[in-house]
Amino acid sequence: KAIEADDQSAMGYSGLGWADLWTLNYQSGCDSFKKALRLNPSEPYAVHGHADCLMLAGRMEEGISELRKLRMLGPFSMFNNIPLCFHLYHARRYDEAIASMQELQERFPGFSMHMQISWVYWTQGRYEEAIDEERKELKWRKDAGALAALEAGYSAAGPTGALKSLADFLVARADETYIDPFRIGEAYARAG
User: Fold this and answer.
1) How far apart are CA 124 and CA 119, in angstroms?
2) Is the dihedral of CA 159, 161, 164, 168 positive or negative?
3) By three-state DSSP, how is residue 100 classified?
């Protein structure tokens, strides 16, 4: 609708690009991001989307470069800062991803990056550090029940036991309230 109302709307093309990307119409989505960037090279949703397209095309360094520019466009916007962390992770530049996430944690103390840092540590085989970050995440969320489950699992079976126990706890909690299925799945996946 935004493009019908104004075919010069960079934001409209960005919205279309994201809708296409999330419905697996990659080429159409990537084309929409390019149109948006021609209209406004600083449109943050288009820069982020274009960087994702570059990543999907295997052009990681170009995507990372675009996301560094996005950070400069909005250094105080979490939206403009967080994509770089994940692109560094997907590029297997793990230490840079951790440093980027820790920087965001300091800059935006109201937004926790501990869970994401835990994922990176786990990928690196740094299991104890990963569990420490999970603890920090659960303490930050003030989630005593999940923290107790993590600790019980850790005491019984180490890091993998901690994540399995946490995932089991979250499944049980899902009977009472919404729990993001991704969170449950990733905990089970890391637990093996």
Assistant:
1) 9
2) negative
3) helix
Output the CA–CA distances (angstroms, integers) from residue 95 to 40, 83, 102, 105, 114, in the order listed: 33, 16, 10, 15, 15
Are 84 and 71 spatial neighbours (Cβ–Cβ below 8 Å)? yes
Which segments of 23-173 does DSSP mark as H helices, in order? Answer: 26-39, 44-56, 60-73, 78-90, 94-107, 114-124, 127-140, 144-173
Report the 10 Å Cβ neighbour count for 117: 26
CA separation for the pair 111, 62 (Å, rounded): 27
Q: 11-22: per-residue pLDDT in tens? A: 899 999 999 999
pTM here?
0.89
pLDDT digits (tens, 9 = 90+) for 87-118: 999 999 999 999 999 999 999 999 999 999 99
